[in-house]
Fold this protein.
Amino acid sequence: NGFDFVNLGLPSGTLWATKNVGASKPTDYGLYFQWGDTSGYTAEQIGKDKKFTEDDYKWLSGGTYTKYNGYADTLELEDDAANVFMGGNCHMPTYSQLDELIKSTTVKWETINGISGQRLTSKIDTSKSLFLPASGYVYGKLNNLNISGTIWSCDSKPNYSYLAYH
């Protein structure tokens, strides 16, 4: 499907995309998404002054969830940004896939061409790794650019779909 993946030798056999959704190279931040929304925003669109509120959440209307009710939901593929943008069998990781990634790799902070992030290197094959740029996160506004980052899971936390596992 035109995307590159890395095999980190994970027990599940999960392959990880080598760049973020919407990114053109591994050090690009890519797009920012609300959980369950597939529109995506660039850092420039968000800026430092755009304020997102609960009213901006795609699946919330008048304080009521319209699709994902927040009780341990898993995104349907049409609401999964990775699947919408990348197609095929691609999807946002599950909670267990994120956990497996963390447990099966060693993590080192590094900077590549001025972009800070974490290098996750396979414990099984140290020649295989994944770079996750510190793209910050959006909570009301864009925060911690080049300091931290978040990967959404396709699984919501019980009672808090807007706070899905990450």
In short: The two ends are 25 Å apart (CA to CA). The helical segments are 43-46, 81-86, 95-103.
